[in-house]
Structures are given as C-alpha cells and as structure tokens.
Amino acid sequence: MVLKNKDSKNRDGPTSLEHLAIKLTQLVGIFRKGKWATDLKWWNTRSIFDPAYGYQDGKSLFDDIVQGILNQNSDMLSRHEVEKRIVFDFLEKQTVNSTEQEHLYNQSLVDKAKNLVKYLIEFEAWQTIDIPIANLWNKSKPFELGHVTFIGITEDELKKWKDDPVIWSPNTPAVGVLARVKAPGDRTRAIEYAITQVDLALDVLRAFLFPFGSSDTWKIGKVGDIIVSTSTPIRIDYKTHLSKLGSGAIQLDLSNHLLIKFPNTQLERIQKLILKTNRTPMESKLVNAIHWLAESTKLDNNDAKFAKICFALEALLGSEPEAEELKVRGITAMLAERAAFVGGKDFEDRFTIDKQIRKYYGIRSKIVHEGAGNVKSDDIDEFGELTRNLVFDLLIRLDELGTTLKDVNKLEDWVKKQRYTLP
Fold first, then answer.
1. Which of 51, 289, 348, 397 is close enough to 316 for a disulfide, judged by CB 3.0 to 4.6 Å?
2. Which domain holds residue 142?
C-alpha cells in the first residue's frame, strides 16, 4: 500500500465535497418519501436498496458518494466503513420517524452532509495488528522484515486467545510467534493491509530460507492457512494400518534455524526491496517471483512444485517487449539467455546456467504437454536453488545498475549489449 500525502486527500477541492454532500441530501429526500425507510427495524435488517421497497433510484447516488469518498481516502477507509457511516450516521438519523424532531432541512442538511463527507475524507487511524504464526518460534529479540515484526508470544498472551473457542480452535497448531504490523486505516482496511504485509514477509522467508524438496516446513504460516494433520493413513492387504508422510510439523526457531542462513548483504537488499512504496516494473516482477518461489516450498506433488518454480523464473525474467521476437527465439531460449547474463560471472558460468535452464524447461514441456514430467526431488531442489540464486543476482544487478534495468524492455536492451560487447 502506498500512503498518500495528507495534503493530497482534498485534491478535488471544496467543489467535490459540496457535490458529494448535495447527493447525500438527495438520498435523504428519496428515503423520506418511502414508508419502509421510516421504520427503525428496516435499517438494521434489510438492504436499503432492496428492489422490493422501491429505493433503486437511490442506488447510483449512493454508489457515487461512496466511491467519491474512497477516491480521496482509499488508504484509510474500506468500502464497508464508508457505507456503514453514511447509512447509520446520516441517512437513518435523517429519515426515521422516531427522531423526526431532529431532522434537518435545506442548508442545515447540506452542512450536516458536508461535515460527514469532510470527516471521512480526512479520516486517519492506525491499528496494531497481531497475527499468530504456526510452528515458528522466536527466542531472540524481535525481528523486523519489511513492515512486519516477528515477536515471541508468552503463554499468558496465548491463553487469552485460547480461552475463546470461537476464535481459537482446539486443533490449532503450535504457536510461538506473532507477526505484528502497524497498519493504516479502519479495522477492515488495517486487517487487509496487515495480512498483505505478513504474506509478503512469509514469502520472503520461504523463498530464500526453506528447502524445495520433501519437508514439513511448509506448515509454517498464518494460523488458519495451515493444515494441522501431516500424515496420510494407509492400509495394506486389508489389515495392516500405518501412516505415511511424517507424524507432525517441524517447529523452527526463527533466529537459530532460519535467519542464520541469511548473509547480511542479502537481507539488506531484500529489506530495501519490500519497504519500497513505489517499485519499478522490474522490482514488482522480483516480488512476484519471490511469491511463486515461496509457493513452491509448500506441500504439493512434484510436478506442481516444479511448475511453480517455472512460474517464479518467468515472473522474474519473462515477458518479451516484441511479440514477433518471442516467436523466433522461443521462451526457453529467451529465459536461458537472460538468466545466463543476470547470474553468470564468466563464460563458463553463463554456459552452465543456459544449459540448466534448457534442461529444466525440457521437463516443464513434458509436464505441460504430456501431463506428467516424472519430476524427481533432486530436480526440484536444484532448479529451486538456481532460481533463488537468480533472484539474488537480479537484486544485485538492480542495486548496481538502477534504472538501467527498470523494466523488461531495459532488461532486454542490457542483455543485447552484453551479448554483442567484446570482452
């Protein structure tokens, strides 16, 4: 989320505010004419624009008002909050008979509407959102990754949540860490923002620190996203019962098991990337690649894991500025060449990367066109590590070259220059 400058919230000026306020007063007039809208119970139990009650002519007005306010303060307000405020803080109070003596008219009604619109346009709030993470521990100091702080949770804190069976299921996996986010907006908007940031932080941990092959570490994630059972019950010859795929999730310590794998320079570059509010197209591709690389570490069949790594590589280095050129070169040749120049340090290095990409895309072709690639775990591990290294390599290139690699067109130009430049 890119937070706007507060001064920009009123960029449409007083005319817009006045315009929205007048539409609000027109809505009041529509509801005052209807018998259903004068019943207090109706506002609490039914849609105010249900066709059965004849208020459809006000629907477009209402939508225009809501969207007009959101256009000026979408960082802080959710549609639900704006609709709730308009309906219950204004329309209901100016319509229901039980408070008719408080109804306003003419300029007084317009002024009241302007006050509400102004309040919503200028609304600003911040919430501290805590999201429990399954099967992860942090016995060291809090760790910040992007806009998320991973902190250890005490037994007392955990007990307060577990005491409410509606919120905390008895089958919830082990929890030792909270992902804490200072999130902008009303409750709905803040929760949406927090979940997005936590998902991004978990993607980073997965993409760079988790194994790609067979592992139980896929069960680290937000509580609710994680399946508790890890075992597959099996019966042999109608009588022997056993379970396969393990007996429980591995519980990892954030500092001792994961972060020690992160060289400081790599972590600094990743922090810089995910904290940016205005990413270049190439940086956005990088974040998308991290997401798919993270997805490939989760429990799935081998073909699907391998395909997700392909998605990650294509998100990272794919897309062709010239469609005709892609027909001539083909996606495999294009990706192999870009990967070779992004990750290769010398001829031997580039030749090896090119050869590896072509090998793995031969496997991809079998998955796509033949329905199965018979992918081995070793192929997943090796292809995953190659793509992970290419993510780091591209991060370094972006640091070194800046806007020279701001989008796929610039990347292609840079690759051509490398191709045709004599040593």
1. 289
2. 125-262
